[in-house]
Amino acid sequence: MAGSGVFAELLDGDTFKYYADGQWKRSTSGNSMTVINPTSRSTYYKLSVCTKEEMDHMFDAAREAQRAWARVPLWRRAEALHKAAALLKQNKDVIAECLVKEVAKPAKDSVTEVVRSADFIDYTAEEGIRILSEGKCLVPDSFPGNERNKLCLSSRIPLGVVLAIPPFNYPVNLSVSKIAPALIAGNAVVVKPPMQGSVAALHMIQCFHLAGFPKGLISAITIKVADLGDALTTHPAINCISFTGGDSGIAIAKRAGMVPLQMELGGKDACIVLDDADLDLAAANIIKGGFSFSGQRCTAVKIVLAMDTIANKLVEKVNVKVARLSVGPPEVDSDITPVVSESSADFIEGLVMDARQKGAKLWQEYRREGNLIWPILIDNVRPDMRITWEEPFGPIIPVIRIRTIEEGVQHCNSSRYGLQGCVFTNNIHRALIVSDAMETGTVQINSAPARGPDHFPFQGLRDSGIGSQGITNSIHMMTKVKSTVINLPVSSYTMG
């Protein structure tokens, strides 16, 4: 049960505390904010609301703790991370329960998220040792006009304090994807959990606390973004921002100045199905890619571009599979569960109504109960419909029928997003040509878009983000190169 056992110290009465100085604290503000259960649409948890003074103290403590942490041997940093990973796995059921109640993630998928997060931490610890134990030694005489009188020793050093802002849909996994690389690289971390998903994230932070990380090195701030959001993201102590979320990331990027950024801001991932594709494979992946976690994933299939010659068969196969999806509460592992909030449900409904009014075909009758929206396949979608370009983050799959491959690629590249895409074909040459032409960070061939495995590079173009993620890329991004040049006596040797 959330807040019990090893997590009991997180609670003050019915309110979850914030984490700073290696302690769980109730804010001096005396205020709290609520976490709504998407299924019941009622308050399920309460969070302490931090003050600006408490936030400033976190950053001061982080800077001080980071200087000492940077001198801790790599193997000891890795050892602490392995302990945190083990604790996550030991407490996976309690943390998974939080995910079920906060974001309506199916119970089985919630456990998977916690275990995946632990595996991420373990791999990061080992990869960090491999990357950070290496350096370079350069000699100068390879550059014209120089003698062998210098040695340049270069290595990677931490940036300092990393601000980590994860999203609601993967509050544990996308927290550790920022925290673990930062820590193994020698940085301190201030985490701002999402409102929905905060309690799961705080339970995850407790696992790092129990693993014995130094006081002040990790902090978790619970705030009202409307009150302290700008003050947080522009704090002068920040040396790096790693953000996953929506368009608010664009505003953060504009204000960040010289601070290095790692941002994933959403997508409109296109699935192009060519006329020689395995339609059963394509249909299965469209269902998996479009409806997993009710479509609330940045890598969800959000538009299907099907060749005219196979579109009817493809849509029929997808429609049959849509009818088999179970709809209901997350506790019983329903395929389709409530979306995260009433405002999200309203937005999704607006997209569906707009498409229907403009002539699209809804293969299923629109049905909604509270935040629960039944899955819909929307056919004959046109460019003048909102669903063509806007990201629904819900259980909707729109289908556009295309006449040529070029038409599909052009549509994909006309989007303001460029996170992921996929192409289905039995011709590898055509697949590679289409992949090369699609302006997205990743293209999957004969599979739905996906973030993992977590050591693969993961990045977006245009409004989908800045920088590249994946364990190796994150470690590189959260460090910088430092050079030490040793000057030697000039050699008396000359050729002649």
From TrEMBL:
It holds the Pfam family Aldedh. Keywords: Cytoplasm, NADP, Oxidoreductase. Its EC number is 1.2.1.9. It catalyses: D-glyceraldehyde 3-phosphate + NADP(+) + H2O = (2R)-3-phosphoglycerate + NADPH + 2 H(+). The active site is at E264. GO terms for molecular function: glyceraldehyde-3-phosphate dehydrogenase (NADP+) (non-phosphorylating) activity; lactaldehyde dehydrogenase (NAD+) activity. Residues 24-483 form the Aldehyde dehydrogenase domain. It is an enzyme of class 1 (oxidoreductase). It comes from the Eukaryota. GO terms for cellular component: cytoplasm. PROSITE patterns: ALDEHYDE_DEHYDR_CYS, ALDEHYDE_DEHYDR_GLU. InterPro entries: Ald_DH/histidinol_DH, Ald_DH_C, Ald_DH_CS_CYS, Ald_DH_CS_GLU, Ald_DH_N, Aldehyde_DH_dom, ALDH-related_metabolic_enz. Its main location: cytoplasm. It is found in: Cytoplasm. Belongs to the aldehyde dehydrogenase family. This is NADP-dependent glyceraldehyde-3-phosphate dehydrogenase. It comes from Adiantum capillus-veneris (Maidenhair fern). The lineage of its organism: Eukaryota, Viridiplantae, Streptophyta, Embryophyta, Tracheophyta.
